[in-house]
Amino acid sequence: xVDDDPFAPARKRDVPLDLLSIDDLEERIATLQQEIAxxxxxxxxxxxxxxxxDSLFSRGAQA
Length: 63
Known about the structure:
The chain is mainly alpha-helical.
């Protein structure tokens, strides 16, 4: 079973937002914003890599 995988990432237990304090909610938002920024950076890098590869291969196909 997947739950038995020792290498699987730890599962986050979702805590109802009603139970969190304002400080906890603000901290959670800050963490999520950092994760979003990291994802956006990774997407931009992958798009640049894809564009470079597309440029290289489309140039080679025209020759």
